UniProtKB/TrEMBL annotation:
Lineage: Eukaryota, Viridiplantae, Streptophyta, Embryophyta, Tracheophyta
Source superkingdom: Eukaryota
Keywords: Membrane, Transmembrane, Transmembrane helix
Transmembrane segments: 6-25, 37-59, 79-100, 107-127, 142-160, 172-193, 213-231, 238-259, 350-370
Record's protein name: Uncharacterized protein
Organism for this UniProt entry: Zizania palustris
rRNA-binding keyword on record: no
Length: 374
């Protein structure tokens, strides 16, 4: 459980810190927002950050030898994890209220009602057994859901604080904003139940994989919706690396490679998997790429013209993000089949190729910005 709580804490820091940093450095002017709730955003963000940091500290203290308060600290840590999830949902709602009003704000609030109820119920179930540490699992799913939810939060903040839709893109902007908000709330809940499962079950791995796939699809949809602003009818091109990876998987499944099974000196796959289990792929490249994707793509919702360099960077960075998420998801299994392993390698290769090519339009954008300032 310690690995999962640590992944949860790191995810909360990635979600909240960019918002507090942008406000503190005056890169985001909340005074321009007409909603009075803008005054509550920084305190709510700070409370969410504290509630996300304290559970790991409490869990570490509960492991000290001879600690008579171990059970109390463990229960308090679980309670704080659930409180943090509720605060993150409230923060997402507060962020979106900066931009929406009238009927939309009530609809956004209604979407949180079942998630809040489920969170409270999960909190009750998980804290009943004060000695339950639940060491099952390696934390890969929590790390994935926390990273993806952090990216979704970053997208929501970018759309609300920097995105201004023009008349022609108003429907697309609302769709991007609404879907990103919904997936943020769901991502927080998924991250919560993967960190502190309310019930022990023999099908946890399968359930976690389903949740991770849902989050992967969600962020892919967010990328497509945001990329549609500058790319228009060429938006489908961001899915090309994903399609190529799926074709590789279909080829490996449908066309068996017989010589691999009879290759002399080859170690038995089962023995090899037991001796060396591959680690899950890193999401650091995907995080950085998605940040650049948002910085360039979100302003195109306004009347700002999108040049060739802008469209090229949005296309390549969006494709790299989707391929990177797929690469990470395919490496979840500790002993993946041959077809999955080959598909993961393909997704890794395509993600890095897209990032490498995206450097060219990115450099052009930087040069144009310098020329405009001079």
């Amino acid at each position: 459980m310690k690995k999962r709580v640590r992944a949860f804490t790191e995810g909360v820091v990635l979600m909240v810190s960019p918002l507090l940093l942008a406000v503190a450095l005056k890169q985001t002017n909340l005074k321009s927002q007409r909603n009075r709730l803008r005054f509550g955003i920084p305190p709510l963000a700070a409370a969410s950050l504290e509630a996300g940091l304290l559970p790991f500290i409490g869990f570490c203290l509960s492991e000290l030898p001879g600690n008579r308060l171990a059970s109390l600290l463990l229960r308090a840590s679980k309670l704080l994890v659930h409180l943090c999830a509720l605060l993150l949902m409230a923060l997402a709602y507060g962020i979106i209220l900066l931009l929406i009003d009238d009927v939309d704000k009530y609809l956004a609030g209604l979407l949180l009602v079942p998630l809040v109820g489920l969170t409270v119920w999960c909190c009750y179930l998980s804290t009943r057994n004060e000695h339950e540490r639940d060491e099952q699992g390696d934390g890969n799913s929590v790390d994935f859901s926390a990273a993806v939810t952090a990216l979704l939060f970053l997208g929501l903040q970018g759309l609300v604080l920097q995105g201004q839709s023009s008349a022609g893109l108003k429907i697309l902007f609302k769709a991007s904003l609404g879907f990103t908000y919904l997936t943020c709330a769901l991502g927080v809940f998924f991250m919560l139940i993967e960190t502190v499962p309310p019930l022990r079950t023999d099908h946890r791995d399968r359930a976690q994989m389903c949740l991770d796939i849902a989050l992967a699809i969600a962020i892919a949809v967010v990328v497509v919706l945001i990329a549609a602003a500058p790319l228009k009818e060429l938006t489908w091109l961001v899915l090309v690396p994903l399609i190529l990876s799926l074709l590789v998987w279909m080829y490996r499944v449908l066309v068996p490679v017989a010589y691999e099974e009879h290759q002399p000196g080859r170690q038995d796959p089962t023995v090899a998997d037991q001796q060396q289990r591959p680690a899950a792929a890193s999401l650091e490249l995907t995080k950085v790429t998605f940040t650049g994707f948002l910085a360039v793509a979100v302003p195109t919702f306004s009347n700002t013209p999108a040049g060739r360099a802008t469209r090229g960077f949005v296309l390549l960075s969006g494709a790299a993000v989707i391929s990177g998420i797929g690469w990470r998801l395919l490496t979840h299994c500790t002993a993946p089949p041959r077809a999955v392993e080959t598909t993961a390698k393909t997704a890794c290769f395509l993600a890095h190729v897209c990032v490498a090519i995206a450097v060219i339009p990115f450099a052009i954008l930087a040069s144009n910005a310098i020329n405009l300032k001079s």
